[in-house]
Design brief:
Blueprint: E1 2-7, E2 10-15, E3 29-34, E4 40-44, E5 48-51, E6 56-59, E7 65-70, E8 74-80, H1 81-88, H2 108-124, H3 130-150, H4 164-167, H5 169-180, H6 188-193, H7 199-210, H8 214-232, H9 237-243, H10 249-260, H11 264-271
Antiparallel strand pairs: 1-2, 2-8, 3-6, 3-8, 4-5, 4-7
Helix pairs in contact: 1-3, 2-3
Length: 273
Amino acid sequence: MTILLEASNCLLLSTDQKKSESNWRNDPCYKFLFSLRGSMNYQSRRNDLSFTENEFMVFNPNDEHRQLAVENHKFLIELDSTFLNEATAAVSVIREDLFFAQTIQKSPLVAQWVQFVQQYMLLEGQERNRSSEVFLEHCFAQLSLLLVKTIIGNHSSDLITEPFRSTQPALFHVMETLKNDYQHAWSLEEMAALLDISKFQFAHLFKEKIGVSPYSWLQLYRLIRSQDLLLHTGRTITDIAISCGFSSIGVYNQLFKRLYGFPPSFFRQRNSN
Protein backbone atom coordinates (compact mmCIF):
# COMPACT_ATOMS: atom_id res chain seq x y z
CA MET A 1 0.00 0.00 0.00
CA THR A 2 1.23 3.48 -0.87
CA ILE A 3 0.08 6.72 0.76
CA LEU A 4 1.28 9.99 -0.73
CA LEU A 5 0.00 13.22 0.82
CA GLU A 6 1.14 16.81 0.52
CA ALA A 7 0.60 19.87 2.68
CA SER A 8 2.03 23.33 2.20
CA ASN A 9 5.79 22.97 1.64
CA CYS A 10 5.88 19.37 2.94
CA LEU A 11 5.24 15.84 1.69
CA LEU A 12 4.56 12.45 3.29
CA LEU A 13 5.17 9.10 1.58
CA SER A 14 4.45 5.74 3.17
CA THR A 15 4.92 2.76 0.87
CA ASP A 16 5.55 -0.97 0.70
CA GLN A 17 7.23 -0.66 -2.72
CA LYS A 18 10.78 -2.02 -2.63
CA LYS A 19 12.33 -0.50 -5.75
CA SER A 20 15.96 0.58 -5.76
CA GLU A 21 17.06 3.90 -7.20
CA SER A 22 20.39 3.83 -8.99
CA ASN A 23 20.43 7.56 -9.73
CA TRP A 24 21.92 10.03 -7.26
CA ARG A 25 19.59 12.69 -5.85
CA ASN A 26 20.27 16.05 -4.22
CA ASP A 27 16.84 17.38 -3.27
CA PRO A 28 16.52 20.98 -1.99
CA CYS A 29 14.66 19.87 1.16
CA TYR A 30 15.26 17.99 4.41
CA LYS A 31 14.43 14.29 3.97
CA PHE A 32 13.40 12.35 7.07
CA LEU A 33 13.59 8.58 6.52
CA PHE A 34 12.20 6.15 9.08
CA SER A 35 12.17 2.35 8.97
CA LEU A 36 8.82 1.05 10.18
CA ARG A 37 9.67 -2.58 9.40
CA GLY A 38 12.67 -4.32 7.92
CA SER A 39 15.88 -2.69 6.77
CA MET A 40 16.58 0.30 4.52
CA ASN A 41 19.89 0.91 2.75
CA TYR A 42 21.06 4.26 1.42
CA GLN A 43 24.33 5.62 0.17
CA SER A 44 25.71 9.15 0.29
CA ARG A 45 28.98 10.53 -1.00
CA ARG A 46 30.41 10.13 2.53
CA ASN A 47 28.65 7.15 4.09
CA ASP A 48 26.88 3.85 3.53
CA LEU A 49 23.77 3.94 5.69
CA SER A 50 21.81 0.88 6.77
CA PHE A 51 19.02 1.09 9.31
CA THR A 52 16.31 -1.17 10.57
CA GLU A 53 13.06 -1.06 12.56
CA ASN A 54 12.48 2.22 14.47
CA GLU A 55 15.76 3.71 13.25
CA PHE A 56 15.92 6.87 11.15
CA MET A 57 18.11 9.53 9.59
CA VAL A 58 17.82 12.94 7.95
CA PHE A 59 19.40 14.09 4.71
CA ASN A 60 20.09 17.81 4.58
CA PRO A 61 19.12 19.93 1.57
CA ASN A 62 21.32 19.08 -1.43
CA ASP A 63 22.97 16.08 0.28
CA GLU A 64 23.71 13.70 -2.59
CA HIS A 65 22.27 10.26 -1.89
CA ARG A 66 20.61 7.25 -3.43
CA GLN A 67 18.34 4.47 -2.24
CA LEU A 68 19.91 1.03 -2.58
CA ALA A 69 17.23 -1.21 -1.05
CA VAL A 70 14.10 -1.20 1.09
CA GLU A 71 13.29 -4.58 2.62
CA ASN A 72 9.76 -3.97 3.83
CA HIS A 73 8.38 -0.46 4.32
CA LYS A 74 9.53 3.09 3.64
CA PHE A 75 8.27 6.10 5.60
CA LEU A 76 9.53 9.38 4.16
CA ILE A 77 8.80 13.02 4.92
CA GLU A 78 10.19 15.90 2.89
CA LEU A 79 10.35 19.18 4.80
CA ASP A 80 10.82 22.50 3.05
CA SER A 81 14.06 24.01 4.36
CA THR A 82 12.53 27.44 5.02
CA PHE A 83 9.59 25.86 6.85
CA LEU A 84 11.82 23.77 9.14
CA ASN A 85 14.23 26.59 9.94
CA GLU A 86 11.41 29.04 10.67
CA ALA A 87 9.62 26.46 12.82
CA THR A 88 12.70 25.82 14.93
CA ALA A 89 14.28 29.30 15.07
CA ALA A 90 12.88 29.99 18.55
CA VAL A 91 14.50 26.88 20.07
CA SER A 92 17.86 26.84 18.27
CA VAL A 93 20.98 28.90 18.94
CA ILE A 94 22.12 28.44 15.32
CA ARG A 95 21.13 31.32 13.08
CA GLU A 96 22.35 29.67 9.88
CA ASP A 97 20.37 26.76 8.43
CA LEU A 98 20.15 23.65 10.60
CA PHE A 99 22.51 20.91 9.46
CA PHE A 100 21.84 17.42 10.78
CA ALA A 101 24.58 14.84 11.28
CA GLN A 102 24.55 12.12 8.64
CA THR A 103 24.17 9.17 11.01
CA ILE A 104 21.58 6.57 11.96
CA GLN A 105 19.66 7.47 15.09
CA LYS A 106 16.94 6.15 17.38
CA SER A 107 14.50 8.05 19.59
CA PRO A 108 11.44 6.76 21.48
CA LEU A 109 9.71 10.12 20.97
CA VAL A 110 10.28 10.15 17.21
CA ALA A 111 9.15 6.51 16.95
CA GLN A 112 5.93 7.30 18.83
CA TRP A 113 5.29 10.26 16.54
CA VAL A 114 5.76 8.16 13.38
CA GLN A 115 3.49 5.37 14.63
CA PHE A 116 0.75 7.87 15.47
CA VAL A 117 0.96 9.62 12.08
CA GLN A 118 1.09 6.31 10.21
CA GLN A 119 -2.06 5.06 11.94
CA TYR A 120 -3.90 8.30 11.21
CA MET A 121 -2.89 8.20 7.54
CA LEU A 122 -4.18 4.62 7.26
CA LEU A 123 -7.45 5.86 8.71
CA GLU A 124 -7.67 8.67 6.16
CA GLY A 125 -6.41 6.58 3.22
CA GLN A 126 -5.68 8.34 -0.07
CA GLU A 127 -8.66 10.67 0.27
CA ARG A 128 -7.41 14.23 0.52
CA ASN A 129 -9.62 16.48 2.62
CA ARG A 130 -9.37 19.52 4.84
CA SER A 131 -9.03 17.50 8.04
CA SER A 132 -6.01 15.57 6.71
CA GLU A 133 -4.38 18.83 5.52
CA VAL A 134 -4.79 20.47 8.93
CA PHE A 135 -3.55 17.33 10.65
CA LEU A 136 -0.45 17.13 8.45
CA GLU A 137 0.44 20.81 8.80
CA HIS A 138 0.41 20.53 12.59
CA CYS A 139 2.29 17.21 12.49
CA PHE A 140 5.05 18.61 10.29
CA ALA A 141 5.57 21.44 12.78
CA GLN A 142 5.70 18.85 15.57
CA LEU A 143 8.28 16.80 13.66
CA SER A 144 10.42 19.88 13.06
CA LEU A 145 10.54 20.58 16.80
CA LEU A 146 11.23 16.92 17.60
CA LEU A 147 14.14 16.85 15.17
CA VAL A 148 15.77 19.98 16.54
CA LYS A 149 15.21 18.87 20.14
CA THR A 150 16.24 15.22 19.93
CA ILE A 151 18.62 14.49 17.06
CA ILE A 152 22.24 15.36 16.37
CA GLY A 153 23.11 18.44 14.35
CA ASN A 154 25.10 21.68 14.20
CA HIS A 155 22.64 23.13 16.73
CA SER A 156 23.18 20.40 19.35
CA SER A 157 24.77 20.94 22.74
CA ASP A 158 23.69 17.61 24.27
CA LEU A 159 22.55 14.10 23.40
CA ILE A 160 19.03 13.75 24.77
CA THR A 161 18.77 10.61 26.90
CA GLU A 162 15.70 11.39 29.01
CA PRO A 163 13.21 9.47 26.77
CA PHE A 164 15.22 6.31 27.49
CA ARG A 165 14.83 6.69 31.27
CA SER A 166 11.52 4.81 31.27
CA THR A 167 12.02 2.55 28.24
CA GLN A 168 15.63 1.46 28.86
CA PRO A 169 16.53 2.40 32.47
CA ALA A 170 19.74 0.31 32.59
CA LEU A 171 21.10 1.81 29.38
CA PHE A 172 19.96 5.25 30.49
CA HIS A 173 22.20 4.81 33.55
CA VAL A 174 25.13 3.84 31.30
CA MET A 175 24.65 6.82 28.99
CA GLU A 176 24.43 9.25 31.88
CA THR A 177 27.61 7.78 33.38
CA LEU A 178 29.43 8.15 30.06
CA LYS A 179 28.23 11.73 29.74
CA ASN A 180 29.49 12.58 33.21
CA ASP A 181 32.99 11.29 32.38
CA TYR A 182 33.16 11.59 28.59
CA GLN A 183 36.85 12.63 28.55
CA HIS A 184 37.84 9.23 29.96
CA ALA A 185 39.23 6.65 27.48
CA TRP A 186 36.39 4.19 28.08
CA SER A 187 36.91 0.57 27.05
CA LEU A 188 34.00 -1.70 26.14
CA GLU A 189 34.81 -3.82 29.19
CA GLU A 190 34.46 -0.79 31.48
CA MET A 191 31.13 0.13 29.93
CA ALA A 192 29.81 -3.43 30.24
CA ALA A 193 30.92 -3.57 33.88
CA LEU A 194 28.38 -0.83 34.65
CA LEU A 195 25.66 -3.43 33.96
CA ASP A 196 27.68 -6.43 35.17
CA ILE A 197 27.34 -8.27 31.85
CA SER A 198 29.86 -9.40 29.21
CA LYS A 199 31.13 -6.89 26.70
CA PHE A 200 29.53 -8.91 23.87
CA GLN A 201 26.09 -8.86 25.54
CA PHE A 202 26.48 -5.17 26.28
CA ALA A 203 27.51 -4.20 22.75
CA HIS A 204 24.57 -6.13 21.24
CA LEU A 205 22.06 -4.70 23.72
CA PHE A 206 23.25 -1.12 23.28
CA LYS A 207 23.20 -1.28 19.47
CA GLU A 208 19.75 -2.92 19.43
CA LYS A 209 18.10 -0.42 21.78
CA ILE A 210 19.99 2.83 21.10
CA GLY A 211 20.68 2.42 17.39
CA VAL A 212 24.49 2.82 17.38
CA SER A 213 27.39 1.03 19.05
CA PRO A 214 28.43 2.19 22.55
CA TYR A 215 31.73 3.61 21.27
CA SER A 216 30.02 5.44 18.37
CA TRP A 217 27.51 6.94 20.81
CA LEU A 218 30.32 8.18 23.05
CA GLN A 219 32.17 9.68 20.07
CA LEU A 220 28.98 11.46 18.99
CA TYR A 221 28.57 12.90 22.47
CA ARG A 222 32.19 14.06 22.51
CA LEU A 223 31.67 15.74 19.15
CA ILE A 224 28.57 17.54 20.40
CA ARG A 225 30.41 18.79 23.47
CA SER A 226 33.18 20.05 21.22
CA GLN A 227 30.71 22.12 19.18
CA ASP A 228 29.90 24.26 22.20
CA LEU A 229 33.62 24.90 22.78
CA LEU A 230 34.15 25.78 19.11
CA LEU A 231 31.38 28.37 19.28
CA HIS A 232 32.02 29.93 22.67
CA THR A 233 35.76 29.74 23.36
CA GLY A 234 38.96 30.73 21.59
CA ARG A 235 40.72 27.45 22.33
CA THR A 236 42.56 25.75 19.49
CA ILE A 237 40.82 22.92 17.68
CA THR A 238 43.56 20.50 18.73
CA ASP A 239 43.09 21.45 22.40
CA ILE A 240 39.31 21.05 22.09
CA ALA A 241 39.62 17.63 20.44
CA ILE A 242 41.96 16.23 23.08
CA SER A 243 40.06 17.74 26.02
CA CYS A 244 36.82 16.18 24.74
CA GLY A 245 38.34 12.70 24.77
CA PHE A 246 39.39 12.19 21.15
CA SER A 247 42.65 10.29 20.74
CA SER A 248 43.97 12.73 18.13
CA ILE A 249 43.04 15.78 16.07
CA GLY A 250 42.98 13.51 13.00
CA VAL A 251 40.28 11.24 14.48
CA TYR A 252 38.23 14.29 15.49
CA ASN A 253 38.47 16.00 12.10
CA GLN A 254 37.63 12.78 10.28
CA LEU A 255 34.47 12.14 12.33
CA PHE A 256 33.33 15.76 12.09
CA LYS A 257 33.73 15.80 8.31
CA ARG A 258 32.08 12.39 7.86
CA LEU A 259 28.98 13.51 9.76
CA TYR A 260 28.67 17.06 8.42
CA GLY A 261 30.68 17.19 5.21
CA PHE A 262 32.90 20.01 6.49
CA PRO A 263 35.67 20.29 9.14
CA PRO A 264 35.33 21.86 12.62
CA SER A 265 37.22 24.97 11.46
CA PHE A 266 34.46 25.71 8.92
CA PHE A 267 31.76 25.09 11.55
CA ARG A 268 33.47 27.58 13.89
CA GLN A 269 33.92 30.21 11.19
CA ARG A 270 30.34 29.92 9.95
CA ASN A 271 28.51 29.89 13.28
CA SER A 272 30.59 31.57 15.99
CA ASN A 273 29.34 35.05 15.09
